[in-house]
Amino acid sequence: MDDNRWVKVGSAPNESLALMIEGLLKGQHIPVLIRRSQGFDVPEFLAAGPREILVPAWAEPEAREIVEDTVGPGSWS
After folding, report:
1. d(CA 22, CA 9)
2. So which domain of life are we looking at (predicted)?
3. How many CA atoms lie within 13 A of 67 on its CB side?
4. Which of 9, 22, 56, 59 has the most CB atoms less than 10 A away?
């Protein structure tokens, strides 16, 4: 497995909730990348629109458990 790749562990309906999930993961020392979902990558949307939560592959099992414990399986995906 390539531990340098980033994998999606969940999603959020907007930036505010994505930042909440990011804080939970960073609190456990897991690096996080928030990305606008495909089709919503228009800057004019500002904080609106769905976001994908990505973490390094090595952190996927722990991150997925945190996200599922917090917002349910698959979050809003």
Report:
1. 11
2. Bacteria
3. 29
4. 9
Average pLDDT, integer, range 22-45:
82
pLDDT in tens, 34-56: 998 765 556 665 667 788 999 99
Return the C-alpha torsion angle 47, 49, 50, 55, nearest 10.
Answer: -30
Residue 1 belongs to a domain: no
For residues 16 and 2, what is the distance between their CA atoms, to the nearest angstrom? 30
Q: What are the distances in angstroms from CA 62 to CA 27, 46, 55?
A: 12, 30, 10
Confidence of residue 29 (pLDDT cuts 50, 70, 90): very high
Question: Domain span at residue 43?
Answer: 6-71
Structural domain contains residue 32: yes
For residue 24, CA distances in Å to 1, 18, 30, 65, 69 come to 25, 10, 9, 11, 11
